[in-house]
């Protein structure tokens, strides 16, 4: 749990209410240590405190509330950090990552406005309606996706956030085509899967940018054709590879999306090139600088990407099928597993560049 901005994650016993209508209780097996939960600590994602963190997880259903029909006790499920109701205007148009239920992601209580967790006499919010940093949790049935029992849950957890977000940033939002040149700016839990998306999508050149040598090496292992330490080096490589036409897509998957990153990213893409902003920016940052003359004349594009523009109920099972077929790599993404009481060490390792993805095992 997180009790204060800038604080440490604290492990303690808390009270959990049973599921209400259209909710399920899940015994957690694994939870990914995603950078988005670090944004709770820094305040880059504003949320009421105290809060139970964690939004990338998988487990087994242990109880269902009234009206739940999609899953039953004993089912293995992956939690999608974005709920999808299937009925709102956005879901009806196929944009389930923009479901109206997502308005509750950082409010704290559940969709009905009440809390399931309580500690020290206070109601406790849940990150993205989930709160996966716990042995048991109660979540909306809109947020769980049933998967086959033979998929290891500690690997399946990764497709609740990091894998589809990175993969989809290139494949869905960026609409990569065979033969494209793709640049990935920042190789963490999201960026490494943008690399995978570019590889599976048929990109001819995949240039990974990261100052950490370990991450550049992992990018090469998972599909990058080139790995460099900064934008200037990337521009030289991309210009040579494309005979001066530059990249088709540049995805920003850094720890934080700074306004100063937009112009360098746009410099890496050519005519009608796309800059996909997947990393979360500071909520109070209102300015970016870029060359508007060039933006118009070259028809360059800046696109936001939430969950990689993915559809949780379609893409999560599909990605696990790709994993089973050996096309999508999940085992190689997990740098280290941690126990729950090692969570602060896990985030220290992430911030120091030691991990692609740390995973808590329960």
Automatic annotation (TrEMBL):
State the PANTHER family in the record: ALCOHOL DEHYDROGENASE (PTHR43880), ALCOHOL DEHYDROGENASE CLASS-3 (PTHR43880:SF12)
Q: Which SMART domains match?
A: PKS_ER
| Protein name as it appears in the record | NDMA-dependent alcohol dehydrogenase
Q: Where is the Enoyl reductase (ER) domain?
A: 6-277
PROSITE patterns tied to this protein: ADH_ZINC
Q: Which NCBIfam families match?
A: Rxyl_3153
Q: Which cofactor does it need?
A: Zn(2+)
Q: Give yes or no: UniProt keyword Cell membrane.
A: no
List the source organism.
Sporichthya brevicatena
User: Keyword annotations for this protein?
Assistant: Metal-binding, NAD, Oxidoreductase, Zinc
Signal as a keyword of this entry, yes or no, is no
The family note in this entry says:
Belongs to the zinc-containing alcohol dehydrogenase family.
